């Protein structure tokens, strides 16, 4: 994999990466053997055996139930009975937390305030669980990068499947010695349709921007940049439509199916970026047939709230609300997005 990176002078850099490590975290049985939810851990976090979930829940019984079921499903858990405890654990653990599962009405610091803190800091995957969801709440939480919602009182199996899919998608930094050490204001990268390479592309982009952009702003930008990257990988080159993704996540087969599909895919993804005058423009192009992007860009808030419990269909909408400009080519397999970085 070769990265051609512009820094205002002639020449290009070759970026090398370490092989991605794979950890087995599922505890389910299939055919007498353990099923494996194959989570990609790159670089310094490859030794982590279990993904960590921060559970912030005001009801003791629910908090313990979540913890028991998640531990039985291969997760490690941190528990907070109120918002202040949750903020303390979040501050202490930082990106060692993989997913946040938060009650809406936490005492002290609400789930909405916790989501706002997360959006300004690390931008970790965030799942909100509540007895009731309405359109206004949904739109407020989406502004903070929350696009996963669970209604309290149901079975925990769908929650487990959702958390596994979020952990699978979570990006991880690669070690400094495999990152390009020169930083400029433009660059491009061509990768194969492999989740390990998508992870690398995210880390490459983040590494290139780290010295150009304030930390909090970079975290927010990367959340939406990752949506565009994942869309090219998942929907573009692998051809997984929204309904199919919902089916895979609900069945708990999302990671395994994507891994099987990418082995048969020889398509590429190209990522480009340029920074100028406090703005960044990035483009992501896949080799897929394109998709009906207007279906997602033009979705109404009422329709969004109606389908909010589905684990798909909000990424493009959320990205379009963040970027000041987001344009697709005619067929929909290339997007060019511009946003403010300061």
Task: Walk me through the structure.
- By secondary structure, the chain is of the alpha/beta class.
- It has two domains: 3-17 and 174-340, 2-Layer Sandwich (Heat Shock Protein 90); 22-169, Rossmann fold (3-Layer(aba) Sandwich), CATH 3.40.50.
- Helices cover 38% and strands 21% of the residues.
- The protein contains twelve helices and 15 strands.
- Strands 1-11-12-13-15-14 form a six-stranded antiparallel β-sheet, covered by helices on one side. The protein has a five-stranded parallel β-sheet with strand order 7-6-8-9-10, with helices on both faces. The protein has a two-stranded antiparallel sheet with strand order 2-5.
- β8, α3 (111-120) and β9 (126-130) form a beta-alpha-beta unit.
- The chain is globular, with a radius of gyration of 19 Å.
- The protein starts with a strand and ends with a strand.
- The relative contact order is 0.13.
- Residues 1-47 and 173-183 have low confidence and may be disordered.
* Main beta-sheet strand count, sense and barrel state: 6 strands, antiparallel
Order of helices and strands: EEEEEEHEHEHEHEHEHHHHEEHHHEE
**Shape, per Cα inertia axes:** globular
Helical stretch tally:
12
């Amino acid at each position: 994999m070769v990265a051609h990176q512009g820094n205002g002078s002639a020449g290009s850099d070759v970026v090398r990466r370490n092989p991605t490590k794979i950890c087995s975290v599922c505890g389910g049985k299939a055919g007498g053997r353990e099923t494996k939810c194959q989570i990609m851990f790159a670089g310094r976090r490859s030794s982590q055996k279990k993904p960590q979930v921060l559970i912030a829940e005001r009801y003791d019984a629910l908090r313990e139930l979540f913890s028991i079921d998640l531990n039985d499903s291969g997760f490690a858990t941190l528990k907070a009975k109120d918002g202040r405890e949750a903020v303390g654990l979040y501050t202490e653990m930082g990106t060692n937390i993989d997913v946040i599962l938060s009650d809406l009405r936490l005492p002290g610091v609400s789930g909405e305030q916790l989501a706002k803190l997360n959006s300004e800091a690390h931008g970790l995957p965030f799942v909100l669980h509540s007895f009731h969801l309405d359109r206004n709440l949904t739109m407020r939480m989406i502004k903070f990068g929350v696009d996963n919602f669970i209604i309290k009182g149901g079975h925990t199996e769908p929650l487990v499947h959702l958390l596994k899919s979020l952990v699978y998608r979570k990006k991880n930094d690669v070690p400094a010695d495999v990152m390009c050490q020169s930083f400029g204001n433009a660059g491009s990268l061509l990768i194969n349709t492999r989740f390990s390479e998508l992870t690398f592309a995210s880390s490459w982009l983040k590494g290139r921007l780290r010295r150009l952009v304030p930390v909090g702003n970079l975290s927010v930008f990367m959340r939406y940049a990752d949506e565009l990257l994942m869309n090219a990988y998942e929907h573009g080159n692998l051809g997984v439509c929204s309904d199919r993704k919902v089916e895979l996540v609900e069945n708990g087969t999302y990671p395994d199916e994507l891994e099987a599909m990418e082995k048969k895919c020889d398509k590429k993804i190209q990522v480009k970026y340029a920074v100028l005058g406090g703005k960044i423009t990035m483009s992501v192009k896949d080799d897929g047939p394109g998709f009906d992007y207007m279906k997602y860009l033009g979705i109404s808030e009422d329709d969004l709230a109606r389908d909010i419990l589905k684990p798909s269909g909000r990424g493009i909408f959320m990205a379009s609300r963040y970027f000041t400009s987001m344009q697709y080519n005619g067929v929909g397999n290339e997007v060019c997005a511009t946003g403010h970085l300061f």
